[in-house]
Every structure is written in C-alpha cells, then in structure tokens.
Amino acid sequence: MTGLDRPEAGFVTFGVLRVDGPGTAAELVGILTEEVTRWVRHTEGFVSARVHVSLDGSTVVNRGQWTSEEDYHSSFRGRPADGVLPTIAGRPGVLAATVFTGAPAPGIEGPQAAEEPGVVAVATRHLSGHESAVEVTGLLARSGEWKRHHPGFISATPYLSQDGTTFINYPMWVNEFAYCSWMRDPRIAEGQEELARLEVAPPEYLLCTVAAQIHAPPPVPPVPPVPPARPGAAAENSQEPGSRKAGPQGGGES
C-alpha cells in the first residue's frame, strides 16, 4: 500500500452503512469526508480514513485507522459539540449500521503495491473464535505464494476482532478488469471452499470504489535549538561594518 512512511495502524474500525440508494450514499460520503477532514484527522493517534461506496450504491463503508484503541476512544471523547458522526446511523435513508473493531494481521502485497486502488473488496467472515481465526489467516498467507504475482493486484490486509469471531479481508486491485481476472482463477474457488468449513454464518462481501481518503496531517518538524552565544560575541556584533577599534591615542587608522 502507499503511504508507508505514515504511523503504523494498530487499531482499525469499519463502519458499514446500508442505505436506500445511491443518493443517500453520496450524501453520507460528503458528511463523512467533511467530518473527518474538519476535526477527526487532527486528533491524537489518528492515521487515516478511507470512505468507500459499493458498486451498486447500496452501502457506504468507512475504514478508520488509529495507532491504538486507546487513541480511538479518547479522540471521540473530545469531539466538537456539533460533530455528527455519533448520530449518522440514524439519518434518513440509513437502513442498517454495523461497526467492526479490531487489529490488522500480516497481509500480502502484489506487483502493483505502490498504486492507488480502483476496486476494493470488504469481505467479512464469521468464525467460532481464535482457533478458526488462526486457520483463516494461515490460509491467506499460503495463498500469497501465487497472489503476490497476480497482475493488477495491490494488496490484501486481514483484520481480526479481539475475540477472534470476525475476520475482514481487505484486498485491493488497480481496476475492475484486474479484479475480474483474479476471480476467474480456479484457485480462488478452491480457497473459498476451504474458508467455508471454518465459518459459522454466511459471509458478507462488498465490492467498492474509494470515494475519499483522508490522512493525518504530516508531523510538524521540530524547531532546531538556538546555539548559545559565544562570550564577547555581542560586543563584536555591535561594531559598524568595516570599522576597527581605536588605537592607544583614540585615533583610527591613518
């Protein structure tokens, strides 16, 4: 992924808003982008946010990245009085809202890892607990033997809930053509069968475009300390340019 020089994200949220159509989706994208840009991005520990819209316009997904869970919670305690994020799920046109919280696990980078995503999938899987979560992350890691060479593939990052019951895979491609080529590979179907035996409920799969991306402001470089003045420097600096001290008789140069 791009932005490797930014702080490491240790805590991630996915806010999923099911809506009544593309018009409401567009409105929510505007609200989320404005709120994050106005105040969230300036809070301690914020790394980035990415707002997505599903291809059919039925869902908005907001992924937030933070350095830690503590920073995430403290940032919202200090939100402005007119902040609307806590009530966004109750806005007209929002049919359902869910929030995932968890941490990233080791992922896979593809040949286009330095490019911006054109298509992103948010694949949510429901597991029985930590043992199944370890198996799922292992399956993803082994599939990297061929996925990391697939044309148009950017990366795939898995996220796990604290109790191990929810797993979100977040793969990205440069465009929809690369995604379709990926899905036609027979190894994808084989992997889905292996994953299915570990699930306790049907998965939820969203194919999205990125509508907005907001990063934390770059850190302000520290001001270098002012070196202490040398003894006698003030007297030297007080002389007129080109002047010299007077001789013993009070006169200048002859």
Provide the descriptors you would attach to this structure in a database record:
alpha+beta; about 30% strand; disordered C terminus; about 250 residues; 9 strands; disordered N terminus; globular
Q: Care to describe what's here?
A:
- With 254 residues, the protein is α+β, with helices and mostly antiparallel strands.
- The protein has 6 helices and 9 strands.
- An 8-stranded antiparallel beta barrel has the order 1-3-2-9-6-8-7-4, surrounded by 4 helices.
- Strand 7 (153-160) and strand 8 (166-173) form a beta hairpin.
- The longest helix has 18 residues, at 130-147.
- The radius of gyration is 27 Å and the shape is globular.
Sheet of most strands:
8 strands, antiparallel, barrel
Helix content: 25-40%
Report strand %: 25-35%
First-last Cα distance:
74 Å
Mean pLDDT: 89
Helix and strand arrangement:
Elements: E1 11-19, H1 22-38, E2 46-54, E3 59-66, H2 69-77, E4 94-104, E5 108-109, E6 119-127, H3 130-147, E7 153-160, E8 166-173, H4 176-184, H5 186-196, E9 199-215, H6 233-237
